[in-house]
Fold each of these.
Amino acid sequence: MTESESRGVSAAGSAAVAPTRRGFISWLAVGWLAFAAGIGAFVTTMARFLFPNVLFEPPSSFKAGYPSDYQVGEVDERWKEKYQIWVVRNTEMTYALITVCTHLGCIPNWLASQNKFKCPCHGSGYYRSGINFEGPTPRPLERAAISISPEDGQIFIEKARKFLYEKGQWTDPAASIKTT
Amino acid sequence: MTAIKDIINWLASPAIAVTLSMVGLVGAMFCKPLWTKKGGILLFATLIGGFAFSFTDPNFRIVASMPDNVPILGMLFLVGFFFWYAMYQAHLNDARLAKGLPPLEKEDSDKKVFTWPDLVYVELISLIVCSIVMILWSIVLKAPLEEPANPGAAPNPAKAPWYFLGLQELLVYFDPWMAGVVLPTLIIVGLMAIPYIDTNPRGNGYFSFRERKWEIVMFCFGFIILWVVLIILGTFLRGPNWNFFGPYEYWDPNKLVPLNNVSVSEIFWVKWLKTALPAFWLKRELPGILLVLFYMGALPGLLSKTLFKRFYEKMGTVRYVVGVNLFLIMLAVPIKMYLRWIFNLKYIVNIQEFSFNI
Amino acid sequence: MNLEKSWRRLQQQVVETQVWKSIFRVGIPNTNRKRVLAVLGNVVLHLHPVKTRKSGVKMRYTWCAGGMTFFLFLVLTFTGLLLMFYYRPTIEYAYGDMLDLREQVPFGIMREMHRWGAHAMVITVWIHMFRVFMTGSYKPPREFNWNVGVVLLVLTLLLSFTGYLLPWDQLAIWAITVGSNMARATPLAGYEGPFAAQIAFNGVNLVTAGSDARFGLLGGRIVGANALLRFYVLHCVFIPLIAAFLMAVHFWRVRKDGGISGPL
């Protein structure tokens, strides 16, 4: 074997076996990208794992008796414990207020003597209508969908459908029942 | 007697209590005689005396002797004691440093001792003392248990765990996203940034006040006033409906405190210009947005040319920007509290459209 | 003294048995060489260097607040494990188990130890931080260890916070309701937070009460069964593991960054 032959062989061999530097770097880049994507996908599945599809929470709609069960001009607290709903009836309409303070989710108390809802956590206060007037809360209480059930004439309240005052939704026909 | 109690009740109202503790803390730190043994005895006697006097009052006793409030009283005394002890040792060292002597710890830290037995025995003794305290405490005080959980009715007052009561107090003044998310995050970030912002090489490894006045005043302001004092306020002075009650006041659930707060936009447009609020949110909130932009954007630059020139030159741009912003946000907490107390201010920026309230 | 002599002889005999030597290797550490070996040969003591600065041994300088915190962590781990024998993290049983722990279990101070220990640990960790700050011990070369300490402080508060829910009484559920509702106000990620309502696709909000940060934390829209179970797992397994790991890092770095701090 001559010297030139051996050099040619070794040069050809290194070209076939060892990749060029550029090729090596791009394969490395692909490898790292795949690694990063794999980690990203795993983190995403783990995050999604924290959000169950089915919940075993109490039902959010219920029948609340007949309109005549409620006194005009009163804030009725009979559903407060079970469904977190106040039913308020006045001469014009009946509406259902959700008893969750819009500040940090405590349950306010109805203070009949002062004619307001007052939250025990940070002192937010709401009028009978649900509109906030004092304390740190940024917005009024929410109203739940209320209707007369066509089957038996009972009041039907759906907590999952909420009506927000600041979005002008309280005038929605489903947000209250007109007193006839 | 009632007159004294009325005065103390009045002094304890948030605005006055926070002002007094701020002025008192910073003033006291520069008052050398307090940080001697005599000063310590005086401080301790005042604390114990005040506590003993208060304990004769039935309303105070009810709140102070709730089992869950006992550790908070313990914390009050412990933090007080260790604050004095740190300052006491700092002033001892300062006196030595002024004479050109090394700090007290220097001699000790140059010597080394065998871990076994010197350190191991100190650890063992601390461990035994700690165990005895824990066992006695557990035997004497029953862990409280309230009524079973009821998602339909909140207790009045409903309080967060005691170590978060400072944050709960801030919820009165800030929107939840500020008090509950942004400020706690910044507390953590700020604490972590301390070693990188503080470029003062002196006072490393020994108690000293003279060499680190600015840092110590800042840290104690954050820790003592904005954390501990607010916790004490939230624990002992916030009663039903999160209303304020003086230490000797009965927690009356029907106490009536009007809380009609207004935003900057209402003050600017309605009160000053006597027009209706503009409909477009950007125009409506422009005064408040400008205020915030000025405070966070322009003030750091202005300060770097004037009041903080010294710091700007010493720290460099990056450190200065991070440090001054953290400082301004920390200062914004008492500023917003005072705005509430003086002007009944609710929000500086109040963009309901995006739930973005500052 | 004859008595003392025989006591010493007994001691000598004990430490020279094969059993003793197989466990501790060195006998009574009465020479410098044996003192060094006593620390080096012991996996727990090995976190310490064989020699310590004299200032690091003095209470007036260290206040032993960090050591107390670690000891309280051990107390809490131990009492917590004992409580786990009786406690079931479901809304049907949790409160009843609490009553049983109080009424039916002999020497029922474990719950007290756990609760008061948790309060005490929060306090000692603050005092430790205060001491480290006041002695300027966060300065170079200890910046990183200060940061580990800050994370440990946060973990301590989180441990206490997650444990707060477990008794399932009124105090527990409302403290966690108020506390976790703040997550609802996270910008973008909480459904009442700034700009969250603007994240919508075809008019459907993507960040709602059923998909926001708080929901992920509680596993539900309310503080209910899922939240109790999650907080239980976080409290008993997840956070303690992270905290234990970081404590190891913290102690290791104390040693590697020049031992317990002292004047340079």
Amino acid sequence: MTGHLVSVLNGLAMGSLLFAIALGLSLVFGMMDVLNLAHGAVYLAGAYVAVALVADGASLAAFVLAVLLAAVLGAVLGGVLAGMTRTTPHHLDQALLTLGVSLVVAETLSVFFGNDVHSIAAPAPVAGSVVVFGETYPVYRLLLIGFGVVLAVAVYVLVERSVLGSVIRATVADRGMVSALGINTGRVLVGVFAAGAALAAVGGVLAGPVLGAQPGLDEKVLLLALVVVVIGGLGSVRGALLGAVLIGQVQALGASLLPEYASFLIFAAMGLVLLLRPAGLLPARGAVRA
Amino acid sequence: MERAEAGATEVTRSSPRRLVLAGAVLAVLVAVPVVLGAYPVTTMTRMLAFAVLVLSVDLLTGVAGLPTLGQAAYFGAGAYTAVLVGLHLTSDAMAQVAAGLVAGLVAAAATGWVAVRARGIVFLMLTLAIGESVHQVADTWSAVGGSNGLAGMPPISLFGSPLLASGFVYWWVLAVAIAVFAGVALVVRSPYGRTLRGVRDNEARMRALGYRPALARYGVFCLAGAVAGAGGALWVAQARFVSPGDLGFEVAALALLSVVIGGAGSLWGPCLGAALVLLVRDNLSASIGGHGPLVLGLVFVAVVFLMPRGLAGAGRGKGPRRGRGKGRGKERPS
């Protein structure tokens, strides 16, 4: 039984990471109808920043530096992607552009870092483990759960309780009206795109000690983020949170209870949600609610 | 008005010049094993099998207006089924292609209902999710070899005699590919094909006229799944090996790239695109240190900016553009 409780904890840690990664994907989709297929590649870029800086268990300072560097790199990549996708009004063309960028980024990373599987150690002060439910459990994963809670609260405050958040929500709901009010919606869109990509890259660093870094990981992460967004509802912050927690649990419990069928379960969960609620569990009804 | 022209230009009309050209291309394709060595022939065989996958993507993306990144899953379903049939039941090539076709059809019918309720970019997203899920299943399920894939399939045979020379395999794959091409061309020109283009261009009007757009989309999704499954069976007829990499994201992306390069909606353009893309991936790649995807990524970006209508659209003045993703696809299913 305690084994399952540990799985639940693993699922929560995974859910925190998925929320950080899927949030940008969901908001960009909700605002601009742009499906950013390079989201997984941005995540992988963040993971390789961690490989370069803290691969073999560096200090906390180096880890924090890696997080900041990944955020900057992610924001730059997001800005470039936003700029590229704004050059064409066609949604399929936009998706194809991000697909091209994702191939280029993933291949460039494998040029520099090779095709080996890299593992990343948790920073020294939190690399140990504690006893939870009578079993030893890594401290780092508990911190990830904490990070997820903090991020969820921060995003709630930002999106629901701040002026900037109201502009973002209004841009999702009716971009034309917001620009008629004299607000530069282009800047809002680029900002959200960059912030979402930065969050994905930071997710790559934070997930490093759990998932490592290897070619092909970008696709897996993109798939999970897509499923989270589809389950939660496009453009919805609450939906992304719910979807991330659900998929985190499905993955962790599936891996411990039915390891052979873990990948079936993800699809089954998505199929079930789409069967019952085609628009997702918590769709953005015209406006994003946190 | 542009929309109305779109339908007219996309249907291949059989003028005498076109027939002569088609005959010449066919003659060249048939003559390939006589003229070229074994290695180029196996490369061409792979291109033909990949072109069948690309046809299925084109059927959805170009004709039905449903951009897809999930056809590699049905391609893989066909490939795995054909290898399993080859390993355990029979080496008969016709049985393998039939099994692959049915596997693709069944897989598409089982998963398609999730996807066809959406349109445009949401459809792209759902098919990607389906495709990647199937890829993960193939990668972890030990019954189909897990990440090692399935190897050791005996050579295919036709009417009881095994096809050992690469030229014979090529001719078999060419014959099936031509049959599939003809079948898809017939569907595209049939009243059903017109219904599909109608649904693509103006769904509300089609519904008002009494058509059932959701049913039409589900039908074409199953059909495309069957075509992709047959392509998968052809792929392993030459490779005699299948691994999860054959149905990964990269294959799906390259299939979509081929359609975009070739010009969505045209049938011959994407086939040409398929040949070009595989040439870059498998042959050029070796000479630039195995980094073909880097080139293909750049090609992707360049094509979007420079060739909005693809090869088939080059040299034509006005015409349809791809990317009719006008709706965000959030509408409820009909």
